[in-house]
Amino acid sequence: MRRRDFITLLGGAAAALPLAARAQQPEQVRRIGVLMNRAADDPLGQVSLAAFQQYLQQLGWGEGRNVRIDTRWGENNADLVRKYAAELVSLAPDVILAVGTLGAMAVQQLTRTLPIVFVNVTDPVGAGLVNTLPQPGGNATGFMLYDYSSSGKWLELLKQIAPNVTRVAVLRDPANPTGLAQLSAIQAIAQLIGVEVSPVDAPDTSEIERAVAAFAASPDGGLIVTGSALTSANRNLIITLAARHKLPAVYSDRLVTVDGGLLSYGPDRVELYKHVAGYVDRILKGEKPSVLPVQAPTKYLLVINLKTAKALGLTVPPALLAGANEVI
Prior knowledge:
Blueprint: H1 3-24, E1 30-36, H2 43-58, E2 67-73, H3 78-90, E3 95-99, H4 101-110, E4 116-119, E5 140-143, H5 152-161, E6 167-172, H6 178-193, E7 196-201, H7 205-216, E8 221-225, H8 229-233, H9 235-244, E9 249-251, H10 254-258, E10 263-267, H11 269-284, E11 300-304, H12 306-311, H13 318-322, E12 326-327
Parallel strand pairs: 1-2, 1-3, 3-4, 4-5, 6-7, 6-8, 8-9, 9-10, 11-12
Antiparallel strand pairs: 10-11
Helix pairs in contact: 2-11, 3-4, 5-6, 7-9
């Protein structure tokens, strides 16, 4: 080989080395912290997290490939939520997903720089998480689980499926501010249609059982179960109590109706977490939470359990059946 050709070949190989090295470099792994407010075995929490991970995958974020997800389960315990918030912040992830008002506030109290995407927050402005819904202005943005004015729909649906109901107990977790906003919307509708509303604050299992039994002692009653980690954890008990006391009951999530509840109306969690994943994706790609508007759900699901209706002696109106997304 001539000397000139050898030098040319050597130079070309040397120039190619950086390109080859760059091509062989592993893809950068981004880190996401997830703070759930429920227990790890809670079906609603599992559905939500699975939907989030599924849509992240569709957006190109594969766990073990280019993203790592660190998940903590708060178990509806304020002390645990705060503990896990501190753990996640100490990991310095690229973004933290916080479920619930308490979790979102716990994270933001520890950092004003790490991006936060929240979901299931009653009043983001009142909680100090954002300046305004259209322009959050800080390090947090996200999604409210409910358009709370729609909570009055639960009472309307209860009257449609059980017209004889004149008294309604609204079962809620007193530690969850979401229940207060929902109660206000229900009371506004109740005044218009002449239904007596009784708020029932039930902080634990024994109080749920006692309160439902006491309410059911008088006739023509119905039950609205607001969404929370507490009511979700006790959903089977509440379904059993409603059946035992012959109380028509409306719930906020389809999984409760699948398990035997009469009727549910609430956001499509899978659809909601699709949008949550979209915000996380946008932040990982460089957008700032401060300019991503806070959003409310746009898709709701009406689910009716005909077997439970029959057991309660109820005939579901054809118009209500026609409007259902799912009939069990």
